[in-house]
Structure formats: C-alpha cells, structure tokens
Design goal:
The longest helix is centred in the C-terminal third of the chain and has 28 residues. The chain starts with a strand and ends in a 5-residue tail after the last helix. By secondary structure, it is of the alpha+beta class. The chain is 25% helix and 29% strand. The strands form five sheets. Strands 1, 2, 8, 9, 10, 11, 17 and 18 form an eight-stranded mixed β-sheet that branches. Strands 6-5-13-14-15-12-16-19 form an eight-stranded mixed β-sheet. The chain has a five-stranded mixed β-sheet with strand order 20-27-26-23-24, covered by helices on one side.
C-alpha cells in the first residue's frame, strides 16, 4: 500500500474539484485530485456559464478559451399545434458595461468546460487521478488519513492537512461526516441526452408541448450535437435505447423529418432540492453538488459549484501559508447562504417552466449581485448609502497605467492576492506594504489613472477613499480614511 503526503486531498474531478485544484496550483499549494470514475465525464449536463463565473474564469486564465469553444444561447422556438411557432430570446441581458464586462451566459457543454479546466491544470503541472475511489477516512487534530482504492486493484493511503469532498450529490464524504441533507423531491423526473440528428436548424432552441408531454431539442454550441430534455414518468423503468428515443422524439414533436443518428450520452434523474446542514466538520469540507442539489432550471448548479471552490481555494491556501484557521469558518458562512438563495430561485424557475413553458432567464440568474455583506470578512466604514458595500462583488473598471497603457482593474486583481485601492489620497499612505497585499494608488500622481471616472462611478469613490479587495474579487473593506482604525484592525488581523 502506497502512502501519499499532501496538503489538500480533493475528491471529485468535476468542475468544482478542477476549479479548486487550479486555484491551489496557482498558489503553489500541494494537493492530490482524485475521482472514482475511470475517465473524464462525457455529457453536456451543465451547459450554462453565467457572467459571474466568466469573471472567475478570466482570473483563472481560461475565459477566452471558453468563449471560443462555446456560443450564445439561441432563441426559444415554441411550436404550436398548428405547426407554426413563436420565438423569444432565451436570455435577457443589458449591454456590457465598464463595471460588468460580461452580460450574457455562455453555452458550453459541461464536458468541454471541464476539458478546458483540465488543460489549464496541466499547464500548471497537475492532472486528476482517475480510477481512484475514496473508500474511507479519519481525521485528527493535525490532519486527515484517507484510503483510496485504485482501478488496477491496488490501494493507497493519503495523509493530508485537509480533505475536500467535491464528489457529487451522493457524496461519500458528506455521508461519512453524517451531515444531514434535508430538502424535498420536486416530484418530477427527466431525461437528458446528447444526440446526433438531422431535420432541425441550429438557430433555435426547439420546444414542443406542455406538461408531461413536452420535449426540447437544443443545439449544443461548440459541437454538432443537440441536447434533448424531457419529463418522464416518476415511477417505473424508462427505456433509454436509441430506438425508444427516436420514437419519443417523433411522438412528442409530431414530426417525421427529424432523424436520430446516434446517442452519445443519456441520463434519467429525479429532481430534488437539498442543502447540507453543514459545509465543514473539522478538517473536512464539502463543495458543489455534495453540498447542494437542485433542479437544473436557470443554469445555477455548475456555477454555484465553481464559486464554492473559488471561495474555498484562496482560504485553504492562506491557512496553509500561516493565516488563522478561523478563516476557514467563513467558507460555510458565505457559501451556504448563497446556495439557499440559489435553491429557491431554481425551484421558482422550474415551476415557471413546468406550468407555463417559460424558460426566459434574466439578471437574477447571472450571479453578479450575489455577495457576502453579512460575512465576518466584511468591514464597511463608509456607511449604508455607499454605491457598493463591503462583501459585494468588486466591479471592474477600465483605467490607464501611469506609463500610458490601458489597464482593466480585473487584470490587476487576477494575480489572486489582496489589493488595496487608494483613491486620490492626500498625503502619505497609512497602510504599510506587507506580504500578500498589493497597494495601488489611483490618481494623477499614482500608478493608475481613472481617466474616464469609471472607478469613481463604480465604487462611489471620493478623494481619500480606500477599498480593500479580497483574493476572490469581493470587497473586504471600505473606508473614507486610510487611517481608519477599523480598516487597520482588519488588515492587522493576520487574515492577509
């Protein structure tokens, strides 16, 4: 039996596990990423990437690859009984703005998203270990001892400082921790499948019927496939053979000209809405579907999972590097509240889709307005009437470097450390440089110029104001005076 020593053991190499691995890798934290399946997931299941997740993928260095591989959502085309149809946009969005550079979700099948993340992880010198199943673990005051069974019949023991279960809705990690997973069944079962077919144009998301007889065929951007979605009976076996799928497509569409050529992936699942009571027990955490499951409506699941990992990654790295272990408590505090809101939204959208066939998506699904105002990491010394508050997502802004080159704020933040923005300060700075903190002075005598006033508008800055931005792109603290005791106590708390 092999013994492996590492800082972090990640179980589950889906979108959440890969995001966490990339975040640890770029921060030079040692980890092992394992998954019990023999190879990468091959289906389209989570195909929507929301604007906030696109911002995260930009910081990870993969957003342009994602956009190049995918495409925008096509309009919804709902067919009437007379053979005609009505068409409407699938998503409602405003034009991109200086503060919000991404305004619409990207459609990209999950297997392509995860493939791009694996490529990025490979560039950082790491790879998932497929065919490695977690069979059990114990923890003590200093770490976690986990047991793995390999596909080749051998076993291994991993000794890690922390364990993260990103191992899906049936999470072994969650069950081993005896974490309750309360919720409810949505009393609805559905089939999803990736198909090669002819007879439909790829310029629309095609939909027929209402209630239990509805069916949709959506062109999957970045591929030549269509994704089938349809409700199926709640009880009994479902025939998922190619012949059965061809027959149900003909029956529910009323079309004889749609020819099914191949089924590349298929899945039948029962919808439910569940939220784990806890996200952490000692040195073990859960993330993604291990912590929350929900209907697929609104494209929230993969995005919420990625953002779980994004939140946890920098905190684990900081604690490994010497920050107080209490920082890790804020992961559950911040992310569980977000997941609870997401579950409510997904359920509301499911009801709209089930009763009215309404699949339009607006700003509420884009996750740009989610934040952590009630977090212990939010320190707001400017007052409640500020344009943005501590805990909010940090807006972007196009600026200019003192050397004359254009520079977006997001480009400065992509390094992943803490950033203190000093806006047109008067006199010497009140915060001293320290490891892990980048101090950026904005103004005519600073390194960054706000020529267009975009920083001032997005943050409500006045001369002398400061904003402390967290490694994950959320505002940690705001103050009108760099010497504000609350700000300096925050910085001196050794979180940074």
């Amino acid at each position: 039996m092999d013994t492996i020593n590492t800082d972090i053991l990640i179980c589950g190499a889906g979108a959440a596990g890969l995001t966490l691995a990339i975040e640890l890798a770029r921060r030079h934290v040692d980890f092992v990423l394992v998954d019990k399946i023999d190879g990468p997931f091959s289906g389209s299941r989570g195909k929507g990437i929301q604007p906030r997740t696109l911002e995260i993928f930009e910081a990870m260095g993969v957003v342009d690859r994602m956009v190049a591989a995918g495409g925008t959502y096509p309009p919804q085309r709902k067919y009437r009984a007379d053979g005609g149809y009505d068409e409407q946009p699938s998503t409602e969005g405003m034009a991109p703005s200086p503060a919000e550079p991404y305004n619409l979700p990207l459609m990209l099948p999950q297997y392509l998203t995860e493939g791009i993340l694996r490529d990025r992880l490979a560039e950082l010198g790491h790879a998932p270990r497929f065919g490695h199943e977690l069979t059990g673990f114990e923890q003590d005051a200093d770490g976690v001892t986990a047991r793995l069974a390999r596909a080749d019949g051998t076993t291994a023991t991993v000794r890690a400082r922390y364990l993260v279960g990103a191992d899906g809705g049936r999470s072994l990690v969650r069950k081993a921790l005896a974490i309750d997973f309360p919720g409810e069944s949505m009393k609805m079962r559905a089939m999803v499948a990736d198909l090669s077919l002819t007879g439909l144009d790829r310029g629309a998301w095609h939909r027929w019927g209402d209630g239990p007889g509805q069916i949709s065929l959506c062109p999957l951007m970045g591929t030549d496939l269509f994704q089938l979605q349809m409700p199926v009976p709640l009880e009994g076996d479902i025939d998922t053979s190619d012949a059965a799928l061809a027959a149900v497509i003909a029956a529910r569409t009323g079309r004889a000209d749609i020819a099914l050529h191949a089924v590349h992936w298929r899945s039948v699942y029962e919808m439910s809405s569940r939220l784990a009571d806890r996200y952490r027990v000692g040195r073990v955490f859960i993330a993604g579907d291990a912590a929350h499951v929900h209907p697929p409506t609104g494209g929230q699941g993969l995005n919420t999972s990625v953002q779980d990992a994004w939140n946890l990654g920098w905190k684990l790295a900081a604690v490994v590097d010497g920050a107080p272990a209490a920082l890790l408590d804020t992961y559950e505090t911040e992310r569980r509240e977000v997941a609870a809101a997401m579950l409510g939204l997904a359920s509301k959208l499911l009801e709209a889709a089930r009763t009215r066939g309404d699949l339009r998506r607006g700003r509420e699904t884009q996750q740009l307005d989610l934040g952590y105002r009630t977090s212990p990491l939010a320190c707001d010394a400017r007052g409640d009437d500020a344009v943005v508050r501590a805990g909010d997502r940090a807006p972007d802004a196009p600026c200019r470097g003192a050397a004359g080159q254009p520079l977006r704020l997001f480009t400065l933040l992509a390094g992943g450390g803490w950033t203190l923005l000093r806006y047109e300060p008067v006199g010497a700075g009140g915060v001293a440089p320290r490891k892990g903190l980048r101090i950026v002075t904005v103004g005519m005598n600073g390194e960054l110029r706000d020529d267009g006033g975009h920083l001032r508008a997005a943050y409500g800055f006045a001369p002398g104001d400061v904003a402390l931005i967290r490694p994950d792109g959320y505002i940690g603290a705001l103050a009108s005076d760099e010497r504000d005791p609350a700000l300096n106590t925050y910085i001196a708390s050794s979180v940074i």
